[in-house]
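F-box domain-containing protein: structure, please.
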Amino acid sequence: MSSEILKENNHYLKACILYEVLQKKPISDSYRNFCATVGQDAISYPDFEFWFYRFYDGNRDFDYDRSADPEPKTLMDMPVELMYKIVGNLDSVERNVLGSVNRPMQGFAVFLPPVFEEMEITFHRMNFLAWKLNNNPKICGGYEKLEKFINIPGLQVKHLCLITIGSQVNFPDRLPVSIKTKSVDITAGTINQMIELLSIAKPGKLKSIRLSNRRAESFEMDSFPRIFDTEQFKQAKHVDIVGYVTDYNLSLFNFRHLNSFKLRIRAPAPGELFRVLRDDIPLYYKPFETCEIIIVDSEDRFKVRSIGEALGEEVPFGPSKTITHRHRIPKSKDYLEFEIKDEGRSCRIKIVKVC
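Here you go.
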């Protein structure tokens, strides 16, 4: 029979579907063969699927009345919140594909802004920069492409990594600014470079800052207050300084608005520092949850013991590798737990607020 005759009779169409079932091929292959034989517009895929599996299960009644069956659910019958969640888990390329194969979903794919897990920008000499997305080894291009990319409406990057190569980096006249990101990881040779890079991350959404000094072992503490004055630092919740500082009083005083911080000190840090932290954290570090301080002091072989004794902990005679001290916060059921570990060339002190 011609395809036009088959289309005019539902029993003929169902016989064709039964024929495909009897060939014992996957439904996708069966549907393609059915469309090639009868025509693309003969029957929709959901209808073909219904009859295919009905025949497959042994029900061969061509006159079955489907009007009494509940209306089948489609993709668009899902709750709106679930549809946004599905689209939100796709990157921009996957969203474009989804929108091209499913027109109703296109609105959701276009409405949600593009979100990337990670973006890395590396600044070299002579105003040259390179950038890539989601740790893809393929470099995305120079400044002009980057400028167009960051101007995509609603663009968001979960983690932003900014790097300078060399101490004589000349930044472009127009730095890419206001990139929305939750966390930023900066590796630079000077404090001034760090401040330039920190300005790229938009304040407000930014919660976590990591600063790494590439060029020297110790930070230039004279310039550090400029970092503390940035809106990015003032609004952050978590800060990790990878590199050694010498003026710990200056640093810790500016960390009192943070939930957590990590600091490395290359200097003799007196036990008084930890008594001050013990007493000041409940009073001034209101959002405090935890901090970690690493001290490198090759001249003090008994740093663990001296810190423990300064906190009022009774330390047994002999070498001590780990000391735990708990301090009850006045007028509260909460307490601070100090864990002090000897790590050979360094001493690690972790302070946690326990509720």
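Notes: The CA atoms of residues 31 and 185 lie 51 Å apart.
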